[in-house]
Structures
1.
Amino acid sequence: MPAPDAALIARKAEIVRALRRIVPGEGVVSEPEALVPFESDGLSAYRQTPLAVVLPETTQQVSEILKWCSAEGVKVVPRGAGTSLSGGALPLADGVVLGMAKFNRILEVDYANRCAVVQPGVTNLGVTHAVEADGFYYAPDPSSQIACTIGGNVAENSGGVHCLKYGLTTNNLLGCELVLMNGEVVRLGGKGFDAAGYDLLGVVTGSEGLLGVVTEVTVRILPKPETAKALLLGFPLVEAAGATVGDIIAAGIIPAGLEMMDNPAIRAAEAFVGAGYPVDAAALLIVELDGPEAECAELTGHVRALASARGADFVRVSHSEAERLAFWAGRKAAFPAVGRIAPDYYCMDGTIPRGKLPQVLSAMSEMARSYGLGVANVFHAGDGNLHPLILYDADKPGELEKAEAFGAEILKLCVAVGGVLTGEHGVGVEKRDLMGTMFDPTDLACQQRVKCAFDPALLLNPGKVFPTLHRCAELGRMHVHRGKLAFPDLPRF
């Protein structure tokens, strides 16, 4: 992280007083013991006590906080529920954490336009709970949906087990209210499906808190499908399960969800939840098909045939809604379940072309043997989004460093086979120094220029995403060689 500014730390009392004038009462946290819960996010291997935490309740307060911090050169780290697995909400010793937990109201449900207007602190599952009585739901469903918030989902462009058919957050986001670092409040998009002008909503989605602070979100809600069935498919070989994923998509079948777990993850989840998983299988696919009942029945037969052709020796189809939910309960509890088989684990997130699944899974097994660390694989197989859980013991010297090196090698492999560094967890701190693996200096400079357009003083969430954060003035310089600019015939503005 950037070296803390001692001058800002020395101004803590002044900063806290100013924040308390904007957010009175219990809205500012500054006592050392009270700051402990904010030291890390879901990437708990990294910790840092923030200078202070401010918990606004209104857009006006957020605007005044950012405007004051901008004028005083104080850094700000936006934070939702703190479930980020990439260190995106890791605080700064010389910065203020802007917690959005009190923005927890659903403002409007508009069934005519099939959308809901919510505050960013509303949990992902909270949106579905608000509309399910009327037969609707919110499609993106990260495994942390019971705790993660919509604002954080926007920041990371979160997905979930149903993103294969229904898309990530970006595909289900219609509009947002955003406060810029200078305090300006802007609206992007709205209730319509296609806003005019540049796609700034697309720029903000997945921007990891580097461009602004979201204070209101308009999301798309969908009617629940007529029928939904889930299949459990067990395989004696991991590679066969991976190949079946490609076969299903190649056959023109787009399941609502298509997940994969290897044996360590299967055993942990089954012991934790008791979902009826085949504990002797080398790999398990969970395939969900939804739509009209006749369509689900037809596609179920096709999927079973494709799995059998690849050697599946366990097939179970859900016969009730309770059974379908039980199948998914094991998958959604897989991350905490793995905590039963290792003192610590490091959750990675990379995405590869589906056809490369067998190759990458085999390579990861070899890496695990090389590093002497276990790995449990739980991932969104349908869209190639891997979530290998590297098992280690933080109390053993050097094991965290080995886990990080193992994870970096997995991500480099993802890029090498034509994939990307992240699917939904974001870059944050975790993958920041690997950005050069995927992007060249020109790519990174262009991305940083976007950052400069929104936050010229680089005060919002600094130290994240970019391995080398240039000052905006440096990015704006033009190269002069022997007294001449490059492309002198082009008009300059």
2.
Amino acid sequence: MSSDGGGAPRGQVASATLLIVVGVLVLFVPAGDEGRVLVPISEGHGLSAVDAVGAALLTFGGTWLEVLVVRRLPYLALPPRALFALGLLAGLGVGLLVASVFTGFFWWWAVGAGALGIAILVLVPLTARR
């Protein structure tokens, strides 16, 4: 990345996105093929070794992508209200995803993933632009 913070190379955005996609695909492995639960989280949810690998890939890729987006924010030329709305949407999405794991909001993960996905679909292409 350049020292002035003005550019987020497309290769870095693509690599981070690839890590996220691979992490999500690993998390989609059926529960019967994952092995035993190492850490029970709530009823119907637990962390297996396969889940830990998927979560690690997703966390690393997501954090890398977030750093790229945040470094590029001054250059995106988005109005303050748009940035606030995207931040609110992303925060709501992450909150619903976490709540669906630890509570009885099982199907709310889809709403949270959709909200977070919209924010990502707006910010990532802008970040990858030169």
3.
Amino acid sequence: MALPRTHHCSVCSDGAASDSVLHEDLVIGAPLSMEELTDAQRLDRFALKYAHDGCQVKDVRRVPHDSLSGYAWSVTFTETA
């Protein structure tokens, strides 16, 4: 599962803020097996994808989306300098 196109932090993108900043990504096309995980397991799974230079996942929740599967995952994370 690759980082979504909307992912924005100082490591991945130029011009991102350098203080502690709350971001939200919309991940579309995550494996269907994500539904079978507990909230804690989903948090751990996404945390591994965002675990670079101070990005820390705070929340993962399923949200409606106009994709083929009808939903996406909203990932809220902080970025610290």
4.
Amino acid sequence: MDSYLTNLEKSGQNSKLSHLKHLLYDLQSAVYSSKGGTKVYGDQPTAIFADINSINSLNSIVSSKSDIEIVTIKISNAADLNKSIDLNSFSGFEKLQYIFIISKVETSPSVINNLIKNDTSKYVLLYKISIGG
């Protein structure tokens, strides 16, 4: 993720950089989905925060898809690395631009890339390996 932000900055794409930083770091309306259920905070959510187990059901359980621009997917344990992230699950989200994967377990970029299925390069895929954080 950090290298993508740096590349945006170096290439002078300040507007895109500013907007992505807003999506990543600022408080905004969001949908939170995990195996414990789904909650919506605020009106017209622009973000989804989900665990890897709830990805396949997002298209059917999120009713307000029209403004979603970023999905953050959390990988919490080693077993999650055996699952897949099917990008077709996001086909109903018209404004979705970014899929941000945060791994809380030690892994590598190649393992994360292998989780991705049906990648059409429609989305910018970002990841962060954040052990203990």
